[in-house]
Write a structure and sequence with these properties.
single chain, 243 residues
Length: 243
Amino acid sequence: MTEVSDKVGRALARFDRVTRALDEREGSVREAARRERKRVNADFGRRAARVGVAIGVISILTIVVGLIVPIGMFGFLAAIGLAIGVAALMAFLPSQPQATRAPTADLANGEMVQRFDSYLYRARAALPAPARTEIDSISAQLGSLKQTLERIDTLDPEAQDARRLMSLHLPGLIDRYINVPSGFRDERDGEGVTVNERLVEGLAAGRVALAEISQKLARSDVAALETHGRFIKSRYGEERIDQ
């Protein structure tokens, strides 16, 4: 009876671990989807603002021209048609490059992290399940990385390493995988590793590298805070204040 109870207990514990892992994974996916929706909504907002400005400019020009030279009904209709055409053009023209492509090297640090996050979210569906797990883990750590990279120079050595990973190495790995025909992805190479396994290994290495960069930058901030705190304490300590 005790043996049966132990087996049941181990089974329940294993079930709890699996469901907890699934919940955490789904939570990462939900967060990535929320960030992507926020970016898309922001893009719609920028396009709506451009449309409003264009219509306003055309309206003002029409009024000014009408005060100088009578434009008549046909001129008024032409202005309306022009406004509709410009509004349609600006509404369907994205305010930023499509995020299905890897971020370009000319972006600022914070914008590059956002574009890379969007790229991962859009490329995720084309990858096998183990690779999607790595993608979710990478996406989960981009928030803190963005917060750190936004306030350091793009020429900082750590920032340069992170930028190369986000704009070149990891997107290049994913794009090359997508280009491989599905029938060849399970074939083993000379080292006995499949294309799917190579993808997961590469993503895992990139995840670790980004985490190390983020931790190194965070430790630098902590060290700078400690140094500054010690300076203030030595310069304006209690004894000095009492004096």
